[in-house]
# Entry
Amino acid sequence: MSLTAQITGFVQDVVNAMGMSLTARAEETPDGARINLEGEDGGALVRRGGEGLQALQHLVATAFRKQLGDDNRVVIDCNGFRRDKDAELKQMAHFMAEKARSTGVPQEMGPLNPYERRIVHLAVAEDPTVTSESIGDAFMKTVIISTKK
# Structure
């Protein structure tokens, strides 16, 4: 059984144990595996900014840390919540990059968790005229977007 299939089964078992009516399906993306949960009980996972979804993501990362290693990524999503949030983050990163470029003033985004920071850094990297860096010493950090010198 593939690692993605094992993780999908694990996620399905967790939501079943929680008494939620959700179906886990795996999808391969350029960034790695994405486990999509779909169903009417999804609201419970995405409530309060997706705290439940974030907790499930952490649970999967912890349970499969050895098998995943440092290079493999698995994203847990529910009813497209993360996909929409990712698109929103990318759009905001592009907007802030444009603002930094037009004003010459560094722009701040955050606080962001590691997953969100990665989305922002990748979006900023698409523009060769700007750069980004994370600052802070906690789990949640701020990303500074500025023009390249």
In short: The chain has five helices and six strands. The mean pLDDT is 90. The chain has two domains: 3-79, 85-147. Residues 81-103 form the longest helix (23 residues).
